[in-house]
Structures are given as C-alpha cells and as structure tokens.
Amino acid sequence: MRILVQKFGGSSLSTQEFRYRAIYHIEKALAEGYSLVVVVSAMGRSGDPYATDTLLDLIRSNSDHLPKRETDMLLHTGEIISACVLCSMLQERGIISTVLSGGQANIITTDDFTNAQILSIEGQRIKQELGAGKVVIVPGFQGRTENWEITTLGRGGSDTTATALGVALQAEMVDIFTDVNGIMTADPRLVSEARQLDAVTYTEICNMAHLGAKVIHPRAVEIAMQTNVPIRVRSTFSDDPGTLVTSLTEMSSKQANVTDRLVVGIAHVSSITQIKVQAKEGQYDTQMVFKAMANHGISVDFIDVNPSGVAYTVHDQMASRAGGILTEMGYEPQLMHHCAKVSVIGAGIAGVPGVMAQIVEALTTEDIQILQSADSHTTIWVLVPEVDMVRAVRALHQQFQLHLSR
Amino acid sequence: MRILVQKFGGSSLSTQEFRYRAIYHIEKALAEGYSLVVVVSAMGRSGDPYATDTLLDLIRSNSDHLPKRETDMLLHTGEIISACVLCSMLQERGIISTVLSGGQANIITTDDFTNAQILSIEGQRIKQELGAGKVVIVPGFQGRTENWEITTLGRGGSDTTATALGVALQAEMVDIFTDVNGIMTADPRLVSEARQLDAVTYTEICNMAHLGAKVIHPRAVEIAMQTNVPIRVRSTFSDDPGTLVTSLTEMSSKQANVTDRLVVGIAHVSSITQIKVQAKEGQYDTQMVFKAMANHGISVDFIDVNPSGVAYTVHDQMASRAGGILTEMGYEPQLMHHCAKVSVIGAGIAGVPGVMAQIVEALTTEDIQILQSADSHTTIWVLVPEVDMVRAVRALHQQFQLHLSR
C-alpha cells in the first residue's frame, strides 16, 4: 500500500471553489494509485462561521473563562465540521470516504490541553479503512488522551497531524497544501528576483518557518525528520510540484550539485526591540533579568550575555513593559525599538569559513549597521534597524547569488 | 447526593439573554442543594449558525451525500459547542462546571447512525465530577458505540439524553425547560379557556406529544417511565413549577381527587388525508396496500381494516403519491383531503363507559361529522374534516369541563 498524506489548511477549504481545487488534488493522487489520508484544518477565516477563530470568538463574546479542557472540546469541532463537509463533497463525486476524528484515528496525546504533544499513533484503524478502499479524512489539530479526553495540538497543529500520520503510517510523502507554490529564497514582496526552491532540508525550513516564512509549522517538520518522511510544500491552486523538504543526505543522493548549496534563503522578521542591560554588580545579577522576563510571560530572543551585561530582543509590543520591569528592578535599560532580524539560512554553511565575512561585507557596503549577530549550524542571524531591513535582505540575496538557479 | 437533571432546549439557549435565564435556574437548583447535570441542545434556530439545522444546511449546500456515520459526527458538534458556551458562562459566574460529551459520559448506543438507541449509561464518571462539586454539562442528542463511534439519537434526542441520565443516575427529578409554562388542556390558541395541568401521567403526555403538543419527546417519556423518574415540563422564562409528569400511582398517592380525573386534554393534528380502499377480491389483497406504502416510505396512521376494505390516513403532502401508487396497483382509492385528528386524552378513561358516547354527543351537537374513530387504553381519537377541527376541540374541551380546575 503506497500511502500519501495530504494536508489542506483552512484557507484551502474556505470557499466552495477552493474545496473543489482540493478535490482536484485528491482525485489526482487517487489516479496515481495512492491510498490517501487527508488532513484538514477548520474552514478558513474568510468570514466562515466555523473557523477556529470564530469558535473562540463565540466564547469570548460570552466570557473567556472556559477551562482549557473544554476549550479543546470546543475547538476540535471546527476541524470535524470541515472534514464532514469534504467527506460529503467526495461522496457526491463517487469517492468513498470516511472521517476519523483525531481520537478515532488513535492519535494519543499528553493531557496538556490546548497544547498537547502527540505520544503515539496506532495506525491500525486508518489502515483498515484505507484497505477497504476509502479515502480517510482526519480532522487535524486534535487528538485524545488514553482516557478519551479530547485535546488539541495548539496552533499550526494540522501540519503536525499530517507529518505524524506520515511517520506512523510510513507514508511515501506528506503533501502540505497551502496558498503559495513553495518555499522561496526570500519574500518576493521584498526581493523581486526571489525564486522558488526545488528542495530544502528539514533544518532549513524550520529556520525559515520560525522566522516569518510561515508555510509549515516547525514542530511538524521535526516529527517528519525523525523517520525522514519527505514533505512537499505546494499550492492548492496549481500543479506546481512545490518545494520538497527532505534530509541533506537524501538530497545529495539525488542532486549532484548539492554540495554547491551554501545559502538557500534569506528570511526576516520585523517589529523587534533590542534591550541592553548593564550589569550592576558583576555578571551574576543579569540572570535576574531573564527570570523577570519569564515571570511576566515576555518572550525573549537573540540573547547575548557578555561581561558588561546582557543584550536581548523582545517584540516591539512588549518593549515598554519589559523596560518598565527592568527600571523597577533598578536597572537602566537601553531600548532600541524597530529593529529587524535577518536570517541567512543554509544547511551548507555548517563549517564553511567566510560566510559571516560575506554577510558583513554585503551589509557594510550598503552602510547597514549590524546591531547584533548570532549563528547556529545552519543559520546566521543579524539584527539591523528595521528601516534597513529590505535593503539588507536584498543585499544578502544578491551576495549569495540566490537569484541564480542551481 | 440529590441529583437533578435539567434540560435546556435550543430555543432556551439561542440568545445571551435566554442563556442567562437558564443560568438563573441552574443557580437556583444549586442553592437548593442539588448536584446538577445539565443537558443542552444545539443553540436555537433563531439565526444562530451553530444550530443543528444550520449544520445540516452546511452540508446540503454542498451535497447531501454525507454517510450517516459522518452525519452524526457533524451534528454532534452543535451540542458540544452549545455546552462549551454554557460552561464558559457558568465559570465566569464562579460556578465550577465541566463538559462531558455523550461519549465521555458513557452513553452507549447502538450503531444505528442518526437514530441510535441508548443501550446503557455508565454513570460513574458523571458522579465522580458531581462529587467534586462540579456542574456536569452533557451535550444532548449524542452517544457513542462501544467502539467510540459517535452516534446521535435522532430528533428530540436531547430529551432522551435527559431522562436516560435521570434513570441511570437515579435523579430526584428531570426538569425539561422549554418555552411554555407546562402542559395545557388544549392549544390555547384554539381554546381560550385552556388551562395548565399541574400533573399528567407518562402515558397521557406521550399521547399529547405524538399528537401535536410537542413539549417532550415520547421516547424520552418512555425511558423515564421505566423507573418512574418524575419529569417536570416547565418554562425557562418563569418560576412556574410547570407540569409534573409521573405515574398514575404516584399521582394518586399525592392527590386525593385523582379519581375524578377522566379526560385531561384535547390534542389535535391537521393536514391529514383519509384514504379508503375497497377490497378487490376479498380481504387478503388489502395487505398489499400497507406493504406498498411501506416500500415507498409513506407513514400511515389510523388504520381501519374491515371486511369491505381498508381505511387509513397519510399526511396531506403524501396523499397524491399514495393515491398514484394505489391506482397503479389497480385499486380505486377514495381520498378525503384536509382532515384533522382530534384526541381525547386521559389515563382515567380506561374502562370508564360512556366516554365515547360523550364525544359523539358533543360533536353531533355541533354538527361535526366523525369520519373515523379509534381508541386505546388512555386515548380516543376521532377523524373530522379540518374545517371543523377548531370547533371540535372547543366542543370536547367544554364537554369534559376541562376549563374547571380540579
């Protein structure tokens, strides 16, 4: 049995016309001989009353005192409704299909309501339905505990459902249908020469997703990576094969020139404030800074601890609150509002000397100040003033010749 | 633990104002020391997008090819949403509550999707939550099979959920909240002197419900009758104690004058066609008439088999279809359109001579033709021309002195 998992997001299911596009891809995969598992999100957010956000609004208009357990019961209905609508449309076209809720599909999770983690998936029931020739529609974003408490996987959870099912069912591929054709080398609204990538690695797309190119949830990618299930990020609205997400090894075995791949994309995220705090009495007390942020639920990023103090970033919206907390603690924080984080991503940069040098060169030529930098195995991040963000992305895209097809 | 089950229908939950009325009754019952199980229907049909009908519309706008199993998955979400909204409102007022889906409440049913029958209820989980001081909200109309397939109990199913829980939990009482104050001796729109009944028997209300006074589903009453759980039919919008539904024995023990009770109400249902078929070759072939009706899914009622042929009734809307079938079969059916069935109901009429005589007298005085009649232990039915229906109901109401309080 060749199993394919297809995931359609809320926007792909928001109108009748879009749903017929989804069905086009379903019929195509069936014609190609696949046994098909279709994961759906709640119907889109374009005024549809059954979308996840609208269900939450329904409660908010009353009060937001709903316990988390019951919030999950409420939210999981959105995906079930979506799945039933698709089932109905498939049946109308003579395609035998069935809906298995997350619970019925035996997606077993922790009981961390609203943000549960998948513990295991017992794929027997799904395989049985596939074996009977049915398309199995699974409402995404949901699971159950051993005791049949209903849970949801948090935002982006339908991607996770799709890849986790891909792993559990040993699927040949997981297709994530979205409203873009695939992963681009940079945001095409910023960089006109940005091109679509044929393939990226799991790690690369994670760094892209974390940093603004929100096409697939990083948690979903990490799950696929466990058993190297290939993912295709592709558009509901075209036949473009999209961007393949796979391991570097897998990619090398198929693409001769993969060693040429150094940088594959430039991502960016704006509306960031850099906060610098001087140590009052040696480095020890700066630990208190991060404890204070955590206690107030303020996410921090881009942390740089050095002998004279610490620097880190928060979202612009959190900046004045963070500043106030620090002032109350007796610090004199320096806040630099309206910064942007620009990321140079590529699994090929690991251990390759001179990449940072090229980044500095490109930005210096453009007279763009690097406020801070950091690097990991596969990504280098620089913090720049937000006014310079677009020029920075363009300069780096040019520097690494990402406009050239490779 | 004194357990009270309260059931709020869709109309009682359709607006924020109405939901606060429901909460008023919940708080009152809690103040009276009850452990409370609240059964809810999908939010009302007054334009609310989450009502059962709207969920079905959602599918119909696509196609109505949804398999029954998936229809139940779709429909059961309406009640869950309703339950979560109520939970949220209760929590806001500091009333700890939890939602247990039909499945989680262990309401085990047959797998007759869209019309499942309750097989058993394991009340342990509910009692555990009640023991923890929580109000337990159960979405009505739903259950599950042993294998966790989701089922619905068909229309009127929330009443059934309420009384079945009442039986399983050995509740002191089941309150069915609706938009009327209680059961009336006749439809007050037809009979201005109609009065509210303090108490009726299970059998009486069943005959009333079947015949147009749709305040509680007969199936729900039959379940309550098994263990004599008392039901109160009452209004969400008042403090009126409503009408108590109980056994005749129970009633006798509390009401000295119960033996005076002969007739308690006059019900009616209109838009009926009487069909008479002459036997062609002896009585045997008339059996074919009913087989033919059943094969075409046409409900028949008021069946009278006699040596010369048969008479029965169908809904006016089915009349021409039924007539056509009979003609094709070679019969010459006589159709009398626009009839009405008037019912004289009272557990006290069993074995009491002269009740039929009084009915005939009352109708003859009014010059109303009795087209057909039938009687059971607790009800006598007469078929009259629909134009005479209102006069017939009034005449019978007067004949049995139902305007007098007893």
Helices, strands, pairings?
The structure is a homodimer of 406-residue chains.
Chain A: E1 3-8, H1 16-31, E2 35-40, H2 52-60, H3 68-92, E3 97-99, E4 107-109, E5 118-121, H4 124-131, E6 135-139, E7 142-144, E8 150-152, H5 157-168, E9 173-178, E10 199-201, H6 202-210, H7 218-226, E11 231-235, E12 243-246, H8 248-254, E13 265-278, H9 286-295, E14 301-306, E15 309-315, H10 316-328, E16 334-345, H11 355-365, E17 372-375, E18 379-385, H12 389-399
Parallel strand pairs in A: 1-2, 1-9, 2-6, 3-6, 9-11, 10-12
Antiparallel strand pairs in A: 4-5, 7-8, 11-12, 13-15, 13-16, 14-15, 16-18, 17-18
The most extensive contact between chains is: A-B, 38 and 38 residues
Radius of gyration of chain A: 23 Å
Largest sheet: number of strands, sense, barrel closure of chain A: 8 strands, mixed
Please report the distance between the alpha carbons of the first and last residues of chain A.
35 Å
Helicity of chain A, as a percent range: 25-40%
Number of helices of chain A: 12
The residue-averaged pLDDT of chain A reads 89
Uncertain parts of chain A: 45-49
Strand order of the largest sheet of chain A: 3-6-2-1-9-11-12-10
Tell me the number of strands of chain A: 18
What amount of the residues of chain A lies in strands?
Answer: 15-25%
Order of helices and strands of chain A: EHEHHEEEHEEEHEEHHEEHEHEEHEHEEH
> Structural class of the secondary elements of chain A?
alpha/beta
**Rough outline of chain A:** globular
Oligomer description: homodimer
